[in-house]
Every structure is written in structure tokens, then in C-alpha cells.
Write a structure and sequence with these properties.
The chain is an alpha/beta fold and 213 residues long. The protein is built from 7 helices and 9 strands.
Amino acid sequence: MVRRKDGLADYHGMKKRLNGLTVPLRGEYQLSNAALALAVFEIIEENGFVVDSEAIYAGLKKTHWEARMEILCDRPLFLLDGAHNPSGISALRSGLKRDFSWRRLILIFAALADKDYCAMLKKIAPMAALTILPPLQTGRAVPARDMARVIKGLGCRAVVSRSVDQAILKAMKMAGDGDIICALGSFYLAGEVKQVFHQIHSCGKQHGNTGIG
């Protein structure tokens, strides 16, 4: 499957050709996932289970996957991604570079201790102007101060926050025009962000954002 310049995608499979598909999920790996799903449809059609092409077009267009380069708001642009291993971080990094441009990237990062958080941070922290490190509500999380030492060892900026909601507030107060905030590293973090984000964002709209240069 190939994404066209107009944002639509074309699928040329084993027998089936579908042009002008809407694939709303960001990231090139999502095109590969969609192509794999369409290839499965081709295989099961050979066994008599026919899938209407209109249903394929409509189904792809309506596809929504939480915490996969999900945009929670656009002012400031706030992305949420559940990438929690080095390969996931690589895919996210490629998606950021391909689909977005920014003046500064501000990260909110947390990870579980059984994940290779050092490798993840090596891949993503150098892209960011600042990484904010909140604690998670689980005993399985890496202590934020341990991750701060790793990031500072890479020559990058990091600060520890008291909670996920405080991390979101700090990032949103810092974010100016052209900046992107991205929360990533764990689905536990994604869940906690989802719990508090919209209330915090509503407060931010009422009181305004403070950008810093």
C-alpha cells in the first residue's frame, strides 16, 4: 500500500486493487498494517467469504486507534502514543519526522522497569528540547529520577514532575506556537493522561497558555 500526495492510499494486492483509500491512522507502519488486513480479506474471499469493497473503504475511513499518534488537541498540538519498546519508539520517531514539523518537541515520558527504557530514551530524547518525567500509579514503573540521569547522560534536558497532571500542565504552559507535546513510553502513562487531559485542557483554554522562547 502506498500513500499518495493527496493523503489517500492505493492498495495493489494479490488480485484486488483499491485506489483512493482513506487511512486516517498516522505512521507508515499503519499503512503496512492496513495492507496486511486487506491481504487477509483477499485470502478469506477465496474461501467464499466475500467482503464488499464499499465496506472496506468505509471501515478504513472510520478506523480509530487510541494512543497511536493520537491527537488530543491541536492548540498546542498534543500527541499521545503508547510506544513502549525500542521498535515502537523508532516507528513513532519516523512518524513524527514524516507527518509533523515543529519548532520544539516537548516529551512526557514514563516507562515500566521491564522495558528497555535506556534504549528508548537514546532514540527519542535527543529529538526533544525537554523531557518531563512524571511518576506512574504503579509499582512497576521506573523511578523518574533514574530516567533523568539517563537523559542528562545523553546531554539532553530533563525535569521530574510530581504527577502526570503536573507534567501535562508544565508542558502546555511551555508550549508556544509551532511546538509539539508528545506523551509516550507506556500504556499506563497513556491511560493516566486520558483520565485527566480534557479537564486540564479546558482549564488551559480558560486561563491561556504561556509560551517561552
